[in-house]
Each structure stands twice: as structure tokens, then as C-alpha cells.
């Protein structure tokens, strides 16, 4: 039987398909995919070491198992560092996040940015709202230029539970109301609103941890304090970290199922980006990585 000659078009398409699978082995079915690379970027509410004895594990440790149950394989790098703001985050972005070339970055800052170092005699937040928003915008723009997807999270709410801070703020009447259940959140609420606005403006995915925690606490038999470390009232407890993990699992699963991107960006098939017909012929349309 005489074989028909391949046209140049189909030859190129076949080359795209038959390029060594090891170069992009994760692009066809979920079972064959290389794990998604995720970086969790934040402060001590993200960091793995700061509160390990009190939390059991943080959300970045929980995510791989939780997403695996949804058929999504991931590697999660924890780039959280305690007692840091978006200012430090901006400074270490290249080293701690971009260097890993992540598919997805989870960002959560705000508690330290809005924090008043009352024990040092200060009466204003560490960062102004303007700088906070600018830093978040810069971080997001840099990651978007890399092609990474982004999930921006509001900070978790806090409660008065640490006697040290209660006493310290009582020395400055009128600054924060130590008698109000949500008094510690007076500034945090404003910075959380800025996070929501930045997410809306940049078009990134928003997970509103603050509202989810507060909603949890509104349910009968579910005090919000059980989501926070006892005696601390600032950092999520094991149950709080589990809730954040569940919220992220839902958000990432929806993102992975809905987002579609041509394989044109893969090494070896760059011409597909200029020829949608070629990408279709090569059957190289995949869920976004």
C-alpha cells in the first residue's frame, strides 16, 4: 500500500505531539501530569516552623493530601516567614517565590502590616495602607508577568487572648478597644478591605479567610476562638489551618477545572501560539498548569 505524503502542516503537528514526553510529561491526563508547583507566600500564619507545636501542621502541609483526593497532584513550597510584612515580601519575592517558577502562588499578608508595635511605644501601623496596597500590587504584577496564577487571601481575624497585648494596649486608651470582642481587628478589617480591592483590581482569585472565620464563629456551637491558638488569639490553630486548607482546596480545584490555556507555551511547540489550528490539530489544549 502506498503511503500518502504528509503535508508540512501535519508534519509540524506530529512533531509537537511526538516531542519527548519527559520535557512536558504533565500535560495530558492528570495521572500523567507532573505535580503543579505551588508556593505559599506569607507571614507567620503561613510559616511552618513558628507555631508547629500549636498547630500540628499548617495549610501548606495539608494541601498536597487534600488536593490529591481531588485528583490534583501538587508540590507546595512554604515561603512563609514570621513577623514579616509585604515590604519584606516584596524584597524577597525573586528569591523565595519566582526562583521556583511556580504555576500558582498563594499570598496572605496583612496582620503584621496593620500591626501596631505598642510594646515599642508606637501608635501607628507598621505600614501605611498605601504602601500595603502598592506592595501587593507589585508582587502580583511580577508574578502575573511570569504567567503564574494567584490566589490572594485576606488575613484571618484575631481575638484578645494574649494578656501581654491586652495590658499593653490598655496603656493607650482609645487606640484599640480591649473590651470589645473584635477590638483587635479595628485596623485589620481596613487592611483586609484593601486586599479585597487589590484582588478585584488585578483580577486574581480571592479567598476571604477573614469572613470565613467570622462566619464560622456565627454558627451555634462553633466559637471562633477554636480556630485560633489558645492564649495567642492571633495565629490559626490546627482547626483554623484545616479550614484554610479546605478553602484553598475548593478554590484550587475550581481553578484547575475551569482555566484553560493552550499548550503553545510549552518548549517545542511555541509556534502553536501563532497558529491555533496547529494547536487543535495536535490536540494540545490542556487545563492551565
From TrEMBL:
Positions of transmembrane segments: none
Domain SGNH hydrolase-type esterase: 40-241
GO molecular function, one term: hydrolase activity, acting on ester bonds
Annotated Gene3D superfamilies: SGNH hydrolase (3.40.50.1110)
InterPro entries: Ester_Hydrolysis_Enzymes, SGNH_hydro, SGNH_hydro_sf
Protein name per its UniProtKB record: SGNH hydrolase-type esterase domain-containing protein
